[in-house]
Amino acid sequence: MKHLTEDQLYHLAELSCDAELLNPEEEQQLEHVKSCRECFEQYCVFGTILDATSLNSSLIFDSTALREKAASPVRKILASLKVTYRCVQDTVTLLGEQIQQNIAAFAFEPVLSSAVRGSRSRKTSILRMEDIEDEGTCFVYDAENHKIMLQFTVKNNEFEKIKAYLQFEDQSIINIPLERKGVYLKGILSNVPSGSFEVRIEET
Predict the structure, then answer these.
(1) How many CB atoms lie within 10 A of CB 136?
(2) How far is CA 1 from CA 26, 61, 130, in A?
(3) Exposed / middle / buried, residue 12 (Cβ in 10 Å: 0-12, 13-18, 19+)
C-alpha cells in the first residue's frame, strides 16, 4: 500500500479520538500505519492536534502494535555484498564487492573472482568472498548451478536476531535460511535467479 494521504490520516485520527469503529477499508489503512513510520508519525501529529483541541482530551491509541512499532529497534546491517552478474556469449562473469563499509561487521573481499572448468562450450563462474580475518566466514556463489552458500561467525550476536537475504535490482527479496553450526551460522540457497543482487546480513 502506498503512503496514506493527509486527509486519510486525519480521518483515522478523528475516528481514534471519537473511539469510532472502523470499516474494513479503514482497518486496512490502520494496518498500513502500524508498519509505516512516515505515516505513523503524521498520524500522531494529527492525533495530538485533535486531542489538544478536543473537549474531553481523550485520544485513544487502542493498538499495542502502534506503540511497539514506535519503540521497535532499527535493523543493523552487519554486511552488504554486491554481486554483479554479466553474461556475454554464454560466458558468465561475476564481480563481487562489499558496500557500506562504514557499518559492516565483516570485511569481505573476493579471493577467487571466477573459476572456469569443463569444455569450452560449458563454463562455470564461481564467486568466493572471505572475511579478511576469518576464512571460515565466507560467501560462495555458483552461477551455473544457481546455488549460494553463506557462512559467518555468530560472535556475540544472538542467533534468532540475525537474518540473511538476497535483494535483486527489482527490489524483490529471497531469504536465506540459516542454521547454526558450532560458532558459525550457515545458509544454503538453491534455484537463485540469474542476475545481479545484493546479499545482506542483518541483526534486529
Answers:
(1) 13
(2) 13, 22, 39
(3) buried
Which residue ranges make up each domain of the chain?
Answer: 6-71, 76-203
Segment 89-142, tens digit of pLDDT: 778 888 899 987 655 678 888 885 444 444 444 456 899 999 888 889 999 999
Q: How long is the chain? A: 204
Query: Among residues 102, 88, 79, which one has the least CA distance to residue 200?
Result: 79
What H or E segment, with its residue span, contains residue 64? helix 64-71
Compute the distance between CA of residue 19 and CA of residue 51 in angstroms, rounded to an integer.
12
First to last CA, the chain: 24
C-alpha cell at 96: 563481487
